[in-house]
Amino acid sequence: MKKLMMIMVVVLVAVLAGTAIALDTSTLTVTASVVGTCKFNTATATLDFGALDPNSGSPVNATTATVNFWCTKGIAGESITPDNGLNFAGTRQMLDAVSGDLIGYSLTLTPDANPNMGPGTPRGVAIDGTIAFADYANKSAGNYADTVILTINP
């Protein structure tokens, strides 16, 4: 009987204690933002004009180089711009380090028309180049090169 009385007292205290505690609630707002960004997947690429023949009398078009990139989903209107290269003087120019001769060239960048879907869905920008015949007709035999930095902005 004493045990039963003790159990009843414990249950009564527990019930009274439960009703004496007032509950309250609060709201937690959770937020985040996704930064709109664009990045290149391809660290370097080469646009190769090949061997220029001064007897051809024709301009030379380079084999298309493709540079891959991605932008955050929903970004529209990204811009990819080339700088002027290392030997710019009114036009981009490749330098033959031995002779010091320069060959002018032009670049055309054409991004594909796919929508930006994030890093899992890369896109490409085709890069074409042209050298006018007059820019290489009277140049020294040698290896000509330039470095152009591409910048992408969302």
What does this structure look like?
By secondary structure, this protein is of the alpha+beta class. It contains two helices and nine strands. Strands 1, 2, 3, 5, 6, 7 and 8 form a seven-stranded antiparallel beta sheet that branches. Strand 5 and strand 6 form a beta hairpin. The model has no long low-confidence stretch (mean pLDDT 90).
Overall shape: it is rod-shaped
Portion in helices: 10-25%
User: What is the multimeric organization of the chains shown?
Assistant: single chain
The ordered string of helix (H) and strand (E) elements is: HEEEEEEEHEE
Number of helices: 2
Q: What is the number of domains? A: 1
Say what the CATH topology is. Immunoglobulin-like
Mean pLDDT: 90
- Biggest beta sheet summary: 7 strands, antiparallel
Number of strands: 9
CATH C-level class is Mainly Beta
How big is the Rg? 34 Å
Gap between N and C termini, in Å?
A: 81 Å
Q: Which structural class best describes the helix and strand composition?
A: alpha+beta
Write the layout of secondary structure elements.
Blueprint: H1 2-20, E1 38-40, E2 60-61, E3 65-71, E4 79-82, E5 92-96, E6 102-111, E7 123-131, H2 133-136, E8 144-145, E9 150-153
Antiparallel strand pairs: 1-3, 2-7, 3-7, 4-9, 5-6, 5-8, 6-7
Summarize this, please?
With 154 residues, this protein is an alpha+beta fold. It has two helices and nine strands; from the N terminus they run αβββββββαββ.
Keywords:
single chain, 154 residues, alpha+beta, Immunoglobulin-like, seven-stranded antiparallel beta sheet, two-stranded antiparallel ribbon, 2 helices, 15% helix
